Write a sequence for this structure.
């Protein structure tokens, strides 16, 4: 079959490739991985709050006495 050179765009890549620029894991498609990270962040936040709670309670106690 003859293919006229003026109608064919050369250099196109027709090889199989991912439909996205990044794979699913890189863009957060893995729900279990995301949930695990959220749980870790939640635990860090809770630990920080618990560490500060005595100071907050002491401040409230002092403020109430004034």
């Amino acid at each position: 079959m003859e293919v006229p050179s003026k109608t064919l765009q050369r250099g196109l890549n027709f090889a199989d490739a991912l439909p996205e620029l990044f794979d699913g894991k890189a863009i957060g498609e893995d729900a279990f991985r995301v949930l695990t990270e959220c749980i870790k962040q939640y635990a860090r936040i809770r630990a920080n709050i618990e560490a500060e709670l005595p100071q907050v309670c002491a401040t409230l106690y002092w403020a109430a006495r004034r």
Remarks:
- DSSP finds one helix and no strands in the chain.
- The mean pLDDT is 80.
- The radius of gyration is 29 Å.
- The longest helix spans residues 31-65.
